[in-house]
Amino acid sequence: MFKLIRKYQAISSSLTTGLFISLLSACGGSSNNDGSSNTSVSGNTCFSSNTFGISTLPEASSVLYKTTFCKYLGLSTPNGKSIGFFAQQDISDDQLIRAQRILGFYLAGKDTVANHMADNGAHMMLLKGADGDIELPEGLQGQPLYEKEMIVEGSVGYLSADLETYRDASFEEILHLMHDYGIGIESQPGADMVFSTQIKTARVNAMAQSLWPTAGVDQATRLWIEELRDEGSLSQEYLASVVDSYYGFWQSSDLEPGGMGGVYIAKSRAEVQARDPSGYAVMQTFFQPNISYMARIDAGFSGTFSLQLDNNQIYTFKSQYLTNARLTGSNDSGLLGNALDNQLAGNSGSNLLDGAEGSDTLLLAGNFSDYSIQENAGSILIQDSTNNRDGSIEIRNIEVLKFKDQSKNTSDL
Known about the structure:
Strands 7-9-11-13-17-18 form a 6-stranded mixed β-sheet. Strands 8-10-12-16-15-14 form a 6-stranded mixed β-sheet, with no helix packed on it. The radius of gyration is 22 Å and the shape is globular. By secondary structure, it is of the alpha/beta class. It has helices at about 20-25, 65-70, 95-105, 110-120, 155-160, 170-185, 195-210, 220-230, 235-245, 270-275, 275-285, 315-320, and strands at about 70-75, 80-85, 125, 145, 185, 190, 290-295, 305, 320-325, 335, 345, 350-355, 360-365, 370-375, 380-385, 390-395, 400, 405-410. The protein has 12 helices and 18 strands.
């Protein structure tokens, strides 16, 4: 049984303090454009010079934050403010980008929740190592997420079934930030208290039926549940269990039956629907069925990264819900799409991209005139004339080529 600890730093007691506002008052926006560069470290900065929007900390950040963190990425909100992601040097750019994109995925179409979070100074603290490795200085006021819990798609940890070593807590911890600062809880009302009440009702039902926590949990877990009760965070942890299982993060685990290390009755989406219909209804109310952010496949990945469920490749229990994927680095590798309308992109190596079903789009960084295109039986070969950009891409079952300056239907080539 995993020991589950909720890692807050003064989350709910000071939501509207001036400290949060001063931290984020100068936060900039962000970009989803893809590019690459080397990270440089100088003094208390460790950001890359690229097009992702990663930068030094906002000028208005406190001295404590400037000495604790060295790079920053903001998520712009409709009210013109930002939700900040403060990162230490050991956090890779791809870990930082993924964290920001997960929150953007959660908040898509949820403008009032996003604005409420920004108004309350919501921000993530991305910290080196694992929980307990470092002692956080007094005065940090954000939601922690640790380096060892941030598992990028296509990395060794993402491909592994070893959830004790490679536990991806990104979706959980970022959800906690949105729940407390945006959606709202009884002790701190937020922007969507109707949904907050639905979560609580589902959680009460789950506890009454031993769906969460399950009847077989150990004494340490029962004590943890009582700690959650005392701090008023039962519903937040219940929702995190449902979300993780709904998106397949526990389906590969053979350590315990159920999700969240055996604390929750379900470990897959099908089990959530069958065993916890109230929890499933919560997901249908607020969350998208498929993960819509652009997943950046780890630069060390080689082979074909699949977005299709394949019981022989356990990582696809998670990747089956991805909609969009981009290879990074220069390894010769490939992507296999699913039945969704995928957006796919290669790297600077030689790639084979197969969109499979759906209406799929290949994303290219240059203008149409920068590429040579050769049609073969059952595939199209696209060669970039600019070095270290899109490389050589063979495509199959892809309907649209999206260049920087125009789009082309493959049927019209």
